[in-house]
Design a protein that fits this description.
The structure holds two protein chains of two kinds. Chain A is of the alpha/beta class. Chain A folds into two domains: about 40-260, Thiamin diphosphate (ThDP)-binding fold, Pyr/PP domains (Rossmann fold), CATH 3.40.50; about 300-489, Pyruvate-ferredoxin oxidoreductase, PFOR, domain III (Pyruvate-ferredoxin Oxidoreductase, domain 3, 3-Layer(aba) Sandwich). Chain A has helices at about 40-55, 75, 90-100, 110-115, 120-130, 170, 175-180, 200-215, 230-235, 240-250, 280-285, 320-330, 345-350, 380-385, 415-425, 430-440, 445-455, 460-489, and strands spanning about 60-65, 80-85, 105-110, 135-140, 190-195, 220-225, 255-260, 290, 305-315, 335-340, 350-360, 370-375, 395, 410-415. In chain A, helix 1 (about 40-55) crosses helix 8. In chain B, the strands form three sheets. In chain B, strands 2, 3, 4, 5, 6, 7, 8 and 14 form an eight-stranded mixed sheet that branches. Chain B has two domains: about 5-235, Thiamin diphosphate (ThDP)-binding fold, Pyr/PP domains (Rossmann fold, 3-Layer(aba) Sandwich); about 235-350, Rossmann fold, CATH 3.40.50. The longest helix of chain B has 21 residues, at about 215-235. In chain B, helix 6 links the parallel strand 7 and strand 8 (about 165-170). Chain B has helices at about 10-20, 35-40, 55-70, 80-95, 120-125, 145-160, 170-175, 215-235, 255-270, 285-290, 310-315, 335-350; strands at about 1-5, 25, 50, 75, 100-105, 115, 135-140, 165-170, 175-180, 205, 235-240, 245-250, 275-280, 280, 300-305, 325. The chains are: A alpha/beta, B alpha/beta. Chains A and B meet through strand 1, strand 2, helix 3, helix 5 and helix 11 of A and strand 1, helix 1, helix 3, helix 4 and strand 6 of B. Strand 8 of chain A pairs antiparallel with strand 1 (about 1-5) of chain B.
């Protein structure tokens, strides 16, 4: 037996378990933080770690450290740690939380980080009601970079970048971020607290714990703004700086609860479990809905090599005409490409697309010299008529092509297609009448392929019926025209 | 396997989801918006996250968060939006976070226009953000490749823990072609370094900060070593009829498609012309270029940008062969006829019988 008397002891107060016992990520002085004596961060870190302990969320917690004095928060907190770019912590926190809804995400930010460079990120995270906890440490100055003015710097307060003291006329008024955020509908809890004396510190600890508990309960966005002393930059003793928080800062930034909807807030809905992996191809629409890659044989693939340019006003169905043609070509086993003009003209007037169908792999999807030009209006005819391949076709939506249009060496079918479609039931089917005429030129493309393409692209049964009629009409017009030509010839 | 006719932009999203992407954070911009719209429609259906961010700055930082949490995530943008993302891309490269960024390039500088250019080459391939980092860059030239290279992008991003950019011109995003997709979806494993809000991942930290100068130097050297490995292993290019080519046309994206049409016509006219198409723009396929110098007499680089790719081609060839240059910008694509005229001119000057001549540098 030992001769030493047995000593019984208990720890009355210790470092929270959510702190590392030694700060191994730190290069030196691994038993102490890097914070200056009297700095608020040490106090706030401790109340945050205690709250994490009390809520038993250490394993689930992800702390986002910002740029500023608390950039090294990950030296101290024994939780998951992510260090973010200046001001962006709310954006980072948003995605961590949404990616891992079971995690407890804390965005820990200073006033330069949150209220200046990160003002957009905090505003929108709050407005979306991200169910995260924001600890906003306001010491009215940029401390880490040596004392420059922050949006929160008080009127008259000097800094290295407001050496004559902040004036409302030149630098504007101190920004009240918590009040601003409290005008939004989504935030659940916003409170401003201070570290001006022990009573305030105790209230701050309660607020931090509440803001964290709100997240554990899945209630929504919570933010605690903490007025925090910075003796070093303020050039005060720790005691003086605490007094300055209480006697001066508080006048500009009054303490209190600015938003408390925790009673009315509903817990976040439990996320729906994702579908099994086997269902994913079906959900994204690529399971079996498409066309077989391997056709039964080359003999079934029509001999066709067609380059088409379709052009007209926006709203005439130019792109759909091209798409039906391409889809039909694909259905028939051909290689196809469809390339739209998507420039500003898409919004202001004209629209055009390039379509190629070929038995061979398609090199360039750009159609410089079309075999067929479908010109749904006069400007399109004028723009592209001279590009048509000799011996090719122009399908023109008009009584006759203008005399000054050079259409030599090409066939022209000019018909009032809009009027024809109108007679069929709707002027907007002009594109399908013209497609019908085009299909007569591309005679090898099976009607069954056209039908199935149309069925896939036109879902409305009324329109489908009209479009089918229009196609038939267009085919007839082209046959008649050809018969006239051969008769006359 | 079945073939589906769709836009390149749509193919990217479907392919990404099949590759296990479960996070999309984006901001609309023409001509990339269909990507964001397709993600908005599909992500919630597959248990993924879609969020429209308040800016590209926020979007890339959301990607930083999602990647930190170990989720395969992506965004899409164009010119000005990519410029805004450069801060976050640098942070992600520094913190060694994987992500995929689709850049569907439009016209610049400034607001430029919304037509197709390739003028994001420098800001993407050379890294537009601060610090010693690279992004891996893949350049699809068909809608099929928009799908296939998206899968590769996620694999490379995870393998090298680095942002990967899919650099495609506006035409690639907007055009429709048939695409085949894999029949099975993949589920990536949670990376061991992720911060996932769990007991097992509690000890992990994601940061790009190395305050000590020696530590940052070591970190940068380690990144360098990683990039060096990608240069050895991941460089890709397509040789198209280069086996006997004396004139080699060089271009990526839609330009490569036009160049194939040009080469076909040139060959029909008896000129031995081929196309070398870089598929990876970083790592640049230097060896592919050097191999061709045995037979090739001259290279013609064609871009929809004002001399960006051509610089890398010159570095790869290091003066071994003349490198000439032709470009269209502003949203205009070169027509195969104007490139063909360049080729014919090149042939007169460089092929057998042509008088020896100094390299001609056209407004570069």
């Amino acid at each position: 037996m030992s001769s030493e008397p047995e000593v019984t002891w208990e720890i009355a107060s210790s470092k929270p378990a959510s702190f590392y016992s030694t700060y191994e990520r730190k290069d030196e002085l691994q038993h102490a933080t890097h914070y200056c004596p009297g700095c608020g961060h040490g106090i706030i870190h401790k109340m945050l770690a205690q709250a994490i302990d009390e809520l038993s969320i250490q394993d689930r917690t992800v702390l986002i450290s910002p740029v500023g004095c608390s950039v090294f928060a990950y030296y101290y907190f024994d939780v998951g740690n992510v260090q973010a770019a200046h001001g962006r912590a709310p954006a980072v926190a948003t995605a961590v939380k949404r990616s891992r809804p079971g995690s407890i995400v804390i965005s820990y930010q200073g006033d330069g980080d949150l209220s200046a460079i990160g003002s957009a990120e905090i505003l929108h995270a709050a407005n979306r009601g991200e169910p995260i906890t924001v600890i906003f440490v306001n010491n009215a100055i940029y401390s880490m970079t040596g004392g420059q003015m922050a949006p929160t710097t008080l009127l008259g307060q000097t800094s290295t970048t407001s050496p004559r003291g902040r004036s409302a006329a030149h630098e504007g008024y101190p920004l009240h971020v918590s009040e601003l955020l409290a005008t939004l509908e989504a935030p659940v809890y916003i409170e401003r607290v201070g570290l001006g004396d022990n009573k305030q510190v105790a209230q701050a600890a309660r607020a931090v714990r509440r803001a964290l508990e709100n997240q554990v309960r899945g209630l929504g966005f919570s933010l605690v703004e903490i007025l925090s002393p910075c003796p070093t930059i303020w050039k005060m003793s720790p005691v003086e700086s605490q007094r300055w928080v209480r006697d001066v800062m508080e006048k500009t930034f009054p303490l209190g609860v600015l938003r408390d909807h925790t009673q009315a807030a509903q817990s976040e809905a439990v996320p729906i479990p994702p579908p099994p992996l086997s269902m994913i191809p079906g959900i994204v629409g690529v399971a079996d809905a498409g066309l077989p890659a391997e056709m039964t044989g080359d003999a079934d693939v029509p001999a066709l090599d067609l380059q088409v340019r379709v052009a007209g006003f926006g709203g005439q169905g130019v792109l759909l005409l091209g798409e039906v043609l391409a889809e039909a070509g694909l259905d028939a086993g051909l290689e196809v490409s469809w390339l739209p003009s998507y420039g500003p003209e898409m919004r202001s007037g004209t629209s055009n697309c390039h379509v190629r169908l070929s038995r061979e792999p398609i090199d360039s999807p750009l159609v410089t010299h079309p075999d067929v030009l479908v010109a749904m209006n006069e400007p399109s005819l004028r723009k592209f008529c001279s590009t048509v391949h000799p011996g090719g076709w122009i399908l023109y939506n008009g009584e006759a092509s203008p005399e000054d249009c050079d259409c030599r060496g090409v066939h022209v079918l000019a018909r009032p297609f809009t009027q024809i479609a109108n007679n069929l039931g709707d002027a907007r089917a002009a594109n399908m009448v013209m497609l019908g005429a085009l299909l007569e030129i591309a005679g090898n493309l099976p009607q069954s392929s056209v039908d199935s393409a149309l069925g896939r692209l036109v879902r409305n049964p009324k329109w489908l019926a009209l479009d089918e009629t229009a196609l038939v009409c267009g085919r007839r017009l082209m046959r008649e025209a050809r018969a006239e030509v051969s008769h006359a010839g | 396997m079945s073939r589906h006719l769709m836009k390149g932009n749509e193919a990217i999203v479907k392919s990404a989801i099949l590759a296990g992407c479960r996070g999309f954070y984006g901001y609309p911009i023409t001509p990339a918006s269909e990507i964001t719209e397709a993600a908005a429609a599909l992500m919630p259906q597959v248990g993924g996250v879609f969020l429209q961010a308040e800016s590209e700055v926020a979007a890339i930082n959301m990607l930083y968060g999602a990647a930190s949490a170990g989720v395969r995530a992506m965004t899409a943008s164009s010119g000005p939006g990519i410029s805004l993302m450069q801060e976050g891309i640098s942070y992600m490269a520094g913190a060694e976070l994987p992500c995929v960024i689709a850049d569907i390039t439009r016209g610049g500088p400034g607001l430029g226009n919304i037509a197709s250019e390739q003028s994001d080459y420098h800001q993407v391939v050379k890294g537009g953000g601060h610090g010693n980092y690279r992004t891996l860059v893949l350049a699809p030239h068909s809608v099929q490749e928009m799908a296939d290279l998206t899968v590769l992008a996620f694999e490379l991003a995870d393998r090298y823990r680095n942002p990967v950019v899919l650099l495609a011109d506006g035409f690639m995003g907007q055009m429709m072609e048939p695409v085949e997709f894999p029949e099975v979806a993949t589920e990536p494993r949670l990376p061991r370094w992720a911060v996932a809000g769990t007991d097992a991942s509690r000890g992990n930290v994601i940061t790009s900060m190395h305050l000590d100068t020696d530590k940052l130097e070591a970190h940068v050297r380690q990144l360098e070593a990683k990039y060096f490995i990608t240069e050895q292993r991941e460089a890709r290019a397509e040789d198209w009829r280069t086996e006997d080519a004396e004139i080699v046309l060089v271009g990526y994206g839609i330009v490569a498609r036009i160049l194939k049409a040009v080469a076909a016509e040139a060959r029909a006219a008896g000129l031995p012309v081929g196309v070398l198409r870089p598929i990876t723009l970083y790592p640049f396929p230097t060896l592919h270029f050097q191999r061709l110098t045995a037979r090739a007499r001259a290279f013609l680089v064609v871009e929809m940008s004002n001399g960006q790719l051509v610089g890398d081609v010159r570095l790869a060839l290091n003066g071994a062969r003349p490198v000439e240059f032709f470009s269209r910008v502003g949203g205009n694509a070169p027509t195969h006829l104007e490139v063909l005229a360049e080729v014919q001119d090149l042939a007169r000057r460089h092929l057998a019988g042509a008088p020896a001549e100094e390299e001609l540098i056209v407004h570069v």
